[in-house]
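Review form for a predicted model. The reviewer records the input and the model, then writes brief findings.
Reviewer: anonymous (R2)
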Amino acid sequence: MQTAGVAAAYDRWAPVYDLVFGNVFANGRRQAVIAAERIGGRILEVGVGTGISLPQYSRSSKLTGIDISEAMLDKARERVRQRRLDNVEEIAVGDAEALRYPENAFDVVVAQYVVTAVPNPERALDEFVRVVRPGGEIIIATRIGAGEGLRGTIERLLMPITSRLGWRTEFPRERYQAWAAQNGHVRLIEERPLPPLGHFSLLRYRKSHA
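Model under review:
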């Protein structure tokens, strides 16, 4: 997977993204927003896409949304205008692997169905940790791969196809565990399954004060 290829894939998805994925991921998005709102403050949504989640946040939260796809962001900006979401501070093109924000800039980072859609997931996860404040949280809605067994084999076989569509099928739980252990600045405080089919999970990481 390459960044330019992912951007091109989601530019193609933009006209139909809400129709195809809106209901499928609705519960996961709602749960991610609820988790983020427990902290509130300045929230960065990485992979904001068409902005489908933005109206669900409270107006007291200050929102920044970034995405690699300009076509998706055009829809997000239109949604902000139509819904008069004056708590949205910025909608901008941005790369999850190289965030242009300073350290400790946000109270919460939200990444909904994003980690498996970037070329270098661990680099993006490290960036999430960098820009969230100590004591803040990283909220991730994500597909959890099987790793082993028949399902794991199928996921690996599908990778050449799904990569062209803009996401990876193979990303097991152990990869998150290895990343958190290596990063050393976060701990997992919650993991729970999300529909559909139990292949998705909500992960909450808290950044340490040390």
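Findings: Residues 151-155, 157-168 have pLDDT under 50 and may be disordered.
Further findings: The first strand starts at residue 42 and ends at 46.
Recommendation: see findings above.
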